[in-house]
Write a structure and sequence with these properties.
The structure is a single chain. The chain is α/β, with parallel strands linked by helices. The chain is built from three helices and 31 strands.
């Protein structure tokens, strides 16, 4: 009995040892599989991130709307699909990779790193008239001014206050300001002509206007909300990969919440006290009400139609725009009736471009380029006069990434990561 019991005991111990050994072998096997999977995931993520870096550093390698496979590091296992598309005045870069059962992608909003180029505060076209400064006007930074130069003036009972007219280098400007980026311009003009992208998922505004909230990830196709009639946004929450296009006008109420969306219409108006982060493109009239806040990175753009005699972009008092304000007219300098009006205590933190007239009563923390100034007061109208305003590039955030408005910047940077 003792020998039989010992044999059973030995078999039991052997069984336990066998099970334990098998468990350890299986555990090691699955740990190895998990380790390999995690390593593959990490490599895939690294390759996708490297693809984004390549898009930012060398965008010319990937034409717009033509995704292409790219081999990284001369390594055949590091192949990613890279793509670029326009997104309003900016562009979106996308990097994707599929490895076995894993697919990863990253999307970023890309702009121009203005701080790597010449830090110009003011570019005023030379239309044979000097720039006249009055009151407490402060201009800091590099300035391109007419050959007639800059002088002190006395208007509205105020003469220039200060020791220096320009605090910075003064260079001679050309007869017109630098030409606007034609590729960016053509893309956004196409939406006024209803030339929608094949990738757009088009839906009628009338069908979804009662839907209070719409969020569309940039992983999905762009959602294009369209109407031939007026669009009124009073309480809607729209976020993400969304374009809104109207054949007549868009009214943006203070109660609406818009983030990352783009709006196109002949006439656009943002109600006073509105706050959001978006891009607006109008062709006839664009009005931003009092006390509005456009968070970074926002764009307010007016692209005048050829058959329109005049067009106006108005930014009312105490409004702050963080991003880009631009207005464009095909007519040559001196003949354009395009007008940008920035009222008292309004502040633009970023870029302002207008190949027409600018009535500046607010402040620019960044750069301004225009054909001429036109100052409207209750008593008179003054040409190329500035009264109690600030134009200061040094007040622009070092982290600001803007728009390649005039093809002057070869340096790209990430504006924000998209979701």
């Amino acid at each position: 009995m003792l020998k039989g019991g010992a044999l059973i005991y030995a078999l039991f111990v052997a069984l336990i040892i066998g099970l334990t050994s098998s468990s350890l072998i299986f555990l090691a096997y699955f740990n190895r599989i998990e380790f390999q999977a995690n390593t593959l995931k990490e490599k895939t993520l690294l390759d996708v991130s490297s693809g984004i870096n390549l898009l930012v550093a060398q965008p010319e390698k990937i034409p717009f709307a033509q995704p292409a496979e790219t081999t990284l590091f001369d390594d055949e296992s590091s192949i990613v699909t890279l793509g670029r598309i326009h997104w309003g005045a900016f562009e979106i870069g996308v990097s994707k990779k599929t490895s076995k059962n894993y697919e990863f992608s990253q999307s970023v909003l890309i702009g121009s790193n203005l701080h790597q180029d010449s830090k110009i505060s003011l570019y005023l076209a030379d239309l044979d008239k000097p720039l006249s400064l009055c009151g407490k006007t402060e201009i800091n930074g590099i300035c391109y001014l007419p050959k007639a130069g800059v002088k002190r003036a006395y208007i509205e009972g105020q003469s220039f206050v200060g020791n220096k007219l320009i605090n910075g280098e003064v260079l001679e400007s050309s007869k017109s300001i630098p030409k606007i980026n034609p590729e960016m311009l053509a893309h956004n003009q196409s939406y006024f002509e209803r030339s929608f992208s094949k990738n757009d998922s088009v839906v009628s505004f009338e069908e979804i206007q009662e839907q209070h909230s719409i969020v569309n990830s940039f992983v999905n196709k762009p959602l294009l909300i369209y109407s031939e009639e007026n669009i009124i946004l009073t309480h809607q929450y729209y976020e993400g990969n969304i374009r809104i296009v109207s054949g007549k006008s868009v009214f943006i109420g203070a109660g609406s919440k818009l983030k990352d969306v783009i709006i196109y219409a002949p006439v656009i108006e943002a109600e006073r006290d509105f706050e959001g982060n978006l891009q607006l493109f109008a062709s006839d009239s664009l009005v931003i009400g009092d006390n509005c806040t456009f968070n970074y990175p926002s764009v307010v753009g007016l692209i005048k139609r050829q058959n329109k005699e005049s067009a106006t972009l108005l930014i009312k008092e105490n409004t702050e725009i963080n991003g880009v304000v631009f207005a464009y007219d095909e007519k040559p300098a001196g003949k354009s009736l395009l007008k940008v009006a920035i009222e008292k205590n309004a502040t633009i933190k970023g870029q302002v471009y207008a190949n027409g007239m600018v009535d500046l009563k607010g402040n620019i923390h960044g750069s301004l380029a225009c054909n001429k100034f036109i100052l409207n007061t209750p008593s008179s109208v003054y040409e190329n006069h500035l009264l109690n305003v600030t134009i200061d590039y040094s007040k622009l955030s070092k982290h600001f990434v803007g728009v390649n408005l005039v093809n002057q910047s070869d340096t790209r940077n990430i504006v924000k990561w998209l979701y």
